[in-house]
Design brief:
With 590 residues, the chain is an all-beta fold. The two termini are 25 Å apart.
């Protein structure tokens, strides 16, 4: 019999590989190993779909068929050699508070690497930002970000530092000036106001505020920081000034930063003393009570109170609108279970944005992942992740979807619960919900994407749901997704009531229980996150393999109990832990 063929063949790669194994003999089965052992017609993992290889591995496979001589063993080594990451840039001098403009040198320890930087708050990449060629001159308070990159290497992490420049310049105001108003461009969203200020006396009574239009009374001021009569710098929170322990000295210039959210009528205020670190005056403070309904701000207001008098010197205010976020990518078709390979289009509503995606379970970023240029072909069960980014904007959130491809098997049973009635038991399932528990279909994660919810407020009872399928004496594949907020999200494959495969979640691990009753960790998972599991079990060998997120995590595990067939899938909550878990996209094939 012809030996199996691997595609792609063995070799050295810079990323995980999905290896397809084929044989020219019609009707032949294939078994493979990844642990160095030699497969036979009775030993090794039964091949059912591409083998994911994410670390250096020797893959071996054999083909066999009843009435024929077994093939020779094919062997290939896959060396996964991730590119070396470029060393992160360093700044000299480092970020901090300075009294004069700074000339900042940026370097990286990686020879031959290039550097890009930004000074507008956006995140640089290997293709965005200014190419570094000489020291960067910083004459005003600035956040400097830089990345280093080199062909054949992974981009460095982004280095970021804030340079606060307190030059001591500005205009001096006295009590006689009254309320001084300086207009700036109207802001109705989130923005940051920065300025430098000093008071000639300590204690003092100088108010520095943001407001709508010119104001001549304190009640018209929405956001206020103050050199106070107790010798501390404080800020107004609704109806009164908040407590503060930040002292100030007479004649010293301080740098102020106020981050405002007009829509929520809140702000946070920060101050930096010369040579010091930024301190929080107040976080998420409310606008002054009289200004709780204001819809925009456009004026910087300065007032020196007659008691005790003195003067204040203030630099012009700088207004910086918040950087907008790129819209999260969308997938078409959306994740789900399909009977054939899918061509997935990825889009974002942000014009001019670039998209990167991954299919190996890793998280993409503006520098990590494949740049999207056309529909992504998905021919095997895959978790697709994508991010969108654009210069001058903050990166989007990461979009994630799981695609279950069922080609090559007959569907014995499936349920995505979308046709179920919200709040009711799932149709066709046998459910149990004793006191303190429920087993119902719920609109989670959304009204159009429902799932099966197990709630448990009892420490002695547990809820469950089971469904039968045509008895199978050979291989059965169970695929599903779970969302566990607490321990003991449990899943089983059974022959009637006899448990063959018993698995559950606990303390961040997916665990299986073997024939002796011992518990063995299979793979980690993240709570409150959808996780896809595939169990390939055979009643003829009483063994099973487990895939998590499309990656093989364990193979050749023994059944809990020996069975002659498999015909039931069961999910349940735990009896000793209270909380809520979900199951979705259940699929059983042979």
């Amino acid at each position: 019999m012809p030996h199996p063929v691997f595609s792609p063949g063995g070799g050295t790669y810079t990323s995980a590989q999905s290896v397809t194994i084929t044989t020219a003999t019609s009707g032949a089965s294939i078994r493979y190993t990844t642990d160095g052992s030699t497969p036979t017609s009775a030993a090794g993992t039964l091949y059912t779909g591409p083998v994911s290889i994410s670390a250096t591995t020797t893959l071996k496979a054999i083909a066999y068929k009843s009435g024929s001589t077994d093939s020779s063993v094919t062997s290939a080594t896959y060396t996964i050699s991730a590119p070396v990451q470029v060393a992160a840039p360093t700044f000299s001098p480092g970020g901090g508070s300075y009294t004069s403009a700074q000339s900042v040198t940026i370097t990286t320890a990686t020879s031959g690497a290039s550097i890009r930087y930004t000074t507008d708050g956006s995140t640089p990449t290997a293709t965005t930002g200014t190419i570094y060629s000489s020291p960067v001159s910083i004459g005003a308070t600035t956040t400097l970000k830089a990345i280093a990159y080199k062909s054949g290497s992974t981009d460095s992490s982004v280095t970021s530092a804030t340079y606060t420049i307190n030059t001591g310049g500005g205009t001096t105001f006295t009590v006689a000036d009254g309320f001084v108003n300086q207009a700036f461009s109207t802001q109705s969203g989130t923005f940051t106001a920065t300025f430098d200020a000093s008071a000639s006396l300590s204690p003092s009574n100088v108010t520095l505020s943001l407001c709508l239009g010119a104001q001549t009374a304190y009640t018209g001021l929405a956001c206020s920081v103050r050199f106070s009569t107790t010798g501390v710098i404080d800020a107004r929170n609704g109806g009164a000034y908040g407590a503060s322990s930040i002292p100030f000295s007479a004649g010293v210039t301080y740098h102020f930063r106020i981050v405002v959210n007009v829509a929520t009528h809140t702000y946070s205020a920060y101050v930096t003393a010369p040579g010091g670190s930024e301190q929080t005056i107040g976080s998420n403070y409310a606008f002054r009570t009289e200004q709780a309904a204001v819809t925009s701000l456009n004026t910087f207001n300065i007032d020196v109170n007659s008691a005790p008098g003195g003067t204040t010197t203030v630099s012009p205010v700088t207004i910086t609108p918040a950087v907008s976020q790129v819209a999260t990518p969308g997938f078409s078709p959306a994740g789900g279970t399909f009977a054939s390979a899918q061509s997935v289009t990825i889009t974002t509503s942000t014009s001019g944005a670039t998209i990167r995606y991954t299919t190996d379970g890793s998280t993409p970023s503006s520098t990590v992942g494949t740049v999207y240029s056309g529909p992504v072909s998905i021919s095997a069960t895959t978790t697709l992740k994508a991010i969108a980014y654009k210069s001058g904007m903050s990166d989007s959130s990461v979009a994630t979807a799981s695609y279950t491809i069922t080609t090559g098997g007959n569907t014995l049973f499936s349920d995505d619960f979308n046709a179920g009635t919200t709040g009711s038991a799932p149709s066709g399932w046998t459910t149990s919900a004793p006191s303190g528990t429920t087993t119902t279909v719920q609109a989670f994660p959304s009204g159009s994407d429902k799932s099966l919810q197990f709630t448990d407020t009892s420490t002695s009872n547990y809820s469950s749901a089971s469904h039968t399928f045509a008895a199978q004496t050979g291989a059965v594949t169970l695929q599903f997704s779970f969302y566990a907020s607490v321990n003991w999200c449990r899943f089983f494959l059974q022959s009637g009531s006899t448990v063959a495969v018993e698995m559950y979640t606990k303390d961040g691990q997916i665990i299986y229980r073997d024939s002796t009753g011992a518990d063995v960790n299979i793979a980690p998972y993240t709570t409150n996150t959808w996780t896809t599991v595939k169990i390939v079990a055979s009643a003829s060998t009483d063994k099973f393999d487990v895939y998590v997120g499309g990656v093989l995590k364990a193979s050749g595990l023994g059944f809990r109990n020996v069975t002659s067939n498999l015909d039931t899938v069961l999910f349940s909550s735990g009896g000793s832990t209270t909380g809520t878990n979900y199951i979705d996209s259940v699929l059983v094939t042979n």
